[in-house]
Write a structure and sequence with these properties.
Layout (H helix, E strand, L loop, with lengths): L2 H24 L6 H23 L4 H5 L3 H25 L5 H8 L2 H11 L9 H15 L9 H24 L5 H23 L4 H6 L1 H22 L5 H8 L1 H13 L6 H25 L1
Length: 295
């Protein structure tokens, strides 16, 4: 897979993630966050089965045998990180508004290069750091955070951003070795679904009629975001390092803002527009400067 194909996969991924934010926010009118995530990711798991049978079934065994222990441990960690990231984000939306949640989620952008640099001792291209600053500044302007108060939900989102960071980093570790992104996607969606449903049974009510009342949000968040987008993330990270990938994924906030403007008729002011421009500058800068050095 070429670098340009990976970039296209990343851009389609963030478009789906950005528009899914609306489904996540409106999908808890009749059900709790654990039930929503549990059903959503189980739908995602089912959606991946046909793709797996057609594209990857024959090569799974040979791929896993490259390093069976490494695959099992790291693919399960990916599922756990995704569970904590999505659960904390979903619960946070009960206590804070979308603006705060979107801003604090962008904190995974600076977290990824910091973790990669200090924990894994990996080299980071200098262009990542100014790009991170542009993205965080853009997120601040994009979400009108200065008009909101800090709540419990914001703390949950920041903690969730840590798990999103670890998810991006460990996806890169696994996908570089094992060329079975759909199967890895099935493992993580099934892991998130089972853990979410178990917590839903303990802390929430599972009522079928209430789940069906949110079927549109669940199907969109499950099939497109829960399965297709995350598989596209795996394809994207085959040729994009974790730090630049995190910067590209921050475009999720731009897409969410534009989608809210178009679908929910939310007002888009000059600061929101500037926020979009700042994030776009950060993304473009992070992708162009390493290529300039090579040239």
């Amino acid at each position: 897979m070429s670098k340009s194909s990976s970039l296209i996969a990343a851009l389609i991924c963030v478009f789906i993630w950005g528009t899914t934010f609306i489904a996540q926010d409106t999908g808890m009118e009749f059900i709790g966050p654990y039930v929503f995530n549990g059903v959503r990711f189980f739908v995602g798991f089912l959606a991946l089965i046909p793709l797996f049978l057609i594209l990857e079934r024959k090569k799974v065994k040979s791929e896993i045998l490259k390093d069976k222990k490494f695959f099992i441990i790291n693919s399960m960690l990916i599922g756990l990180f995704l569970f904590f990231g999505t659960a904390l984000q979903q619960i946070a939306l009960l206590y804070t508004d979308v603006a705060n949640a979107a801003f604090f989620t962008i904190f995974y952008v600076p977290m990824v290069p910091i973790i990669v640099f200090y924990l894994f001792k990996s080299k980071i291209h200098w262009s990542v750091w100014p790009s991170v600053i542009f993205c965080v500044m853009g997120g601040y302007l994009l979400t009108d955070f200065y008009n909101a108060t800090v709540r419990l939900g914001d703390t949950l989102v920041i903690l969730g951003a840590l798990f999103w960071s670890l998810h991006i980093i460990f996806v890169a570790r696994v996908i570089k070795i094992f060329d079975i992104p759909i199967f890895i996607g099935m493992i993580q969606t099934f892991t998130v679904s089972i853990l979410s449903i178990l917590l839903g049974i303990i802390f929430e009510e599972i009522v079928l009629i209430n789940i069906l009342a949110q079927k549109v949000q669940i199907l969109y968040a499950g099939i497109l975001s829960g399965s297709i987008a995350f598989v596209l993330q795996f394809y994207a990270q085959k040729n994009i390092a974790p730090a630049p990938a995190a910067i590209i994924f921050s475009l999720e906030g731009v897409i969410a803002t534009i989608a809210a403007w178009i679908i929910l008729s939310q007002y888009l002011n000059i600061n929101n527009v500037l926020g979009c421009i700042f994030i776009l500058i950060g993304v473009i800068f992070s992708q162009i400067m390493p290529e300039v050095k090579k040239s």
